[in-house]
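Anyone up for a design puzzle?
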């Protein structure tokens, strides 16, 4: 499958920065809640959130990017290479 045909899933997330630890907190409706220890300054919390999600999904960090909400706790992350069902399945196993 070429990269142009690979599915891309848009995942709404709510990030809590400067938490005691990095963790997937669970689903609140269709939004995945997570916490990161990194502070919300100079993109540190965003990068920590993407690394946490990539590890939970078993994907390279480069396959994830924030497409909306760079400076907000509410974000939308684009995940390249997995469809929505596979994203949810992998995140449920990771929790």
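Challenge accepted. My sequence:
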């Amino acid at each position: 499958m070429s990269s142009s045909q690979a599915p891309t899933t848009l995942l709404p997330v709510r990030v809590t920065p400067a938490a005691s630890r990095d963790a997937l907190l669970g689903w609140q409706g269709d939004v995945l809640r997570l916490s990161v220890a990194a502070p919300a300054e100079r993109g540190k919390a965003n990068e920590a959130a993407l690394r946490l999600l990539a590890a939970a999904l078993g994907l390279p960090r480069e396959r994830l990017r924030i497409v909306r909400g760079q400076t907000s706790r509410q974000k939308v992350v684009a995940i390249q290479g997995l469809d929505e069902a596979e994203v949810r399945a992998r995140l449920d196993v990771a929790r």
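A detail worth pointing out: Residues 44-57 form the longest helix (14 residues).
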